[in-house]
Write the C-alpha cells for this entry.
Amino acid sequence: MYDPERGVACHGVVALLIAFFPPEGNNNASGVRVMTDGESIQVTIDDRTVTLSREQARELQDALGDAMTHKREFLHTAGEHREDGKYVVSRRSADSAGNTKVFDDFEQVRRLFERLPEEFTAEEVSRTGITGSRRHMLVRHFAEHPGFDCTIARRNPLTVEKTEGSAGAEGEPDPAAAD
C-alpha cells in the first residue's frame, strides 16, 4: 500500500487489509489506515492503532493468509477458499480442471444450494448450467460440507435431501471446530 503522506510503499503489509480495504489514497470509508516509518508498520482500524515490527507484520500476514486460503477435504470432495476470494469445489485428490468447479465466492455456492429443491439430484444441478461430472461432484459436496443442511437420501440416483440443522447464518462453520 502506498502512503502518500510519507511517500513510502509498505511492501508485505497484511494481505487481508489490502484485499478487503482497498486504498483510496491511504484512507478509505472503512476506517483502515496503514503507515510505515521504514522500521515498523502502524495499522489503524477505526480509532485503534497497533504498531508492528516488520517481522510481526510478516507473521500476521502469513497467519491471515492461511486463514483466508483454507482447503478442507471431505470423503469424496474438497472445498478451497482461494486468496483471490474464489471458492473451488473439487474431487478429493484430483488435479485436472475437469474435476473442479470454480465459484466467485462461497456465497455463490450458498445461493446455488438455496435455489435447489428440497430433494435434488445431479439433474437439478445441471439446470443451473453446471454440466458433466461436476454436477455429481457438487451434489456430493453439498452433502459432505457441514455448512449445508442436507444428507444423501439415495445413492442411485445420487439424491440429496435438505434438512433443518446446524449450518450457521453464513453457512460456514468455524473450520477449527469442524476439523
